[in-house]
From TrEMBL:
Signal peptide: none annotated. This is Costars family protein. Gene3D superfamilies: Costar domain. Residues 1-79 form the Costars domain. Pfam families: Costars. SMART domains: Costars. It comes from the Eukaryota. It comes from Arachis duranensis (Wild peanut). Belongs to the costars family. Coiled coil: none annotated. GO terms for biological process: regulation of actin filament-based process.
Length: 82
């Protein structure tokens, strides 16, 4: 799977696990994504996929590097598609 495919799969997982917001975005915590069995099976490197998605402005979150446990409560926002 290439990076673009992984980012697309990440979008799908955030929509499935997150809460839709009034502006059309979705919000989910890093811990929810990291601890989901399906996400663990899909993404070999969830943090790397999140960083690639952030670079492409698909998602937004505070910080650069997310670590399990320490950043479980960091909210990841899937930006609404224009």
């Amino acid at each position: 799977m290439n990076v673009e495919e992984e980012v697309q799969r990440l979008r799908e997982e955030i929509k499935k696990l997150g809460q839709v917001q009034t502006d059309g975005s979705y919000k989910v915590t890093f811990g929810t994504l990291f601890n989901d069995d399906q996400c663990a099976n899909i993404f070999e490197a969830l943090v790397g996929t999140l960083r690639a998605a952030k670079k492409r402005k698909v998602v937004s979150y505070d910080g650069e590097l997310l670590l399990q446990g320490v950043h479980d409560n960091v909210v990841i926002t899937l930006n609404p598609t224009p």
